[in-house]
Design brief:
This protein is α+β, with helices and mostly antiparallel strands and 230 residues long. It has a single domain, classed as NADH Oxidase. Helix content is 38%, strand content 20%. The strands form three sheets. It has a four-stranded antiparallel sheet with strand order 3-4-8-7. Strands 1-2 form a two-stranded antiparallel sheet. A two-stranded antiparallel sheet has the order 5-6. Helix 2 packs antiparallel against helix 6 (153-171).
């Protein structure tokens, strides 16, 4: 058994991997089942207010927390918002930033790209959806008065967010990845420290009764367009 030292504050031991080799036919089937499910994921901007069993959210967060990350420093924090007053505050702050973005900051090409979606600064879904999940990236930790730098933060948090989205979708929920710029208002509203930076705000729930999504979003690139084999 080998002992690894990451720095003077952390250490961990190794153990034999507990891995069960599945028949190749089962592995292929699992991959097909996952692809069939995840390709049906759509970004939803209309939600009903039906409550969600919190066990689903908790399991999805725990799944995200299992993501591979730099030196196992786990540089993330997930703020789960159910409170109506806090959701209202987030909506008002987001709409303020989005208003500035659409009027003054957004490049013309980006606005043209958004036209088919019909999006604007009105973000009522932030109050409609039963759950919001604010994902924060942690640039560093403070332990025993010492500042400990985290590594590969964006990569780690991006992977964790992908797992979170996948788990929520496979569980039967819909969501939207919302990224108003800047998002620093989330630190203030959610009382998060300065070493954390908002990464994405996930809007989670069940779709509204007359929810519509753009047809063009189904047109994903082919395998040949997104992959190269050497």
């Amino acid at each position: 058994m080998r002992l690894y030292y990451l720095d003077k504050y952390m250490k961990f031991e190794t153990e034999k991997l507990n891995f069960k080799q599945l028949p190749i036919e089962k592995i292929v089937l699992n991959s097909k089942i996952f692809f069939k499910s995840i390709k049906s994921r759509r970004s939803v901007r209309s939600f009903n207010k039906k409550k969600i069993d919190f066990t689903i959210i908790k399991n999805a967060i725990l799944a995200a927390g299992s993501a591979p990350n730099g030196a196992n420093l786990q540089p993330w924090h997930f703020s789960i918002i159910k409170d109506k007053i806090i959701k209202r505050k987030i909506r008002l702050a987001a709409e303020k930033e989005e208003g500035e973005f659409y009027k003054y900051k957004a490049p013309v090409d980006w606005l043209k790209a958004l036209e088919p979606l019909g999006t604007d600064s009105n973000k009522k879904f932030l109050e409609e959806a039963p759950i919001l999940i604010a994902v924060f990236e942690k640039k560093y930790e403070i332990k025993k008065g010492n500042k400990i730098k985290n590594y590969y933060v964006k990569e780690s948090v991006g992977i964790a967010t992908g797992i979170l989205i996948s788990c929520l979708h496979i569980s039967g929920l819909c969501m939207l990845t919302h990224t108003p710029s800047p998002m620093n208002f989330l630190n203030k509203i959610l009382n998060r420290p300065n070493n954390e930076k908002p990464f994405v705000l996930l809007v989670v729930g069940f779709p509204g009764k007359n929810c519509k999504v753009p047809k063009f979003a189904k047109q994903k690139k082919s395998f040949e367009e997104i992959a190269t084999i050497f």
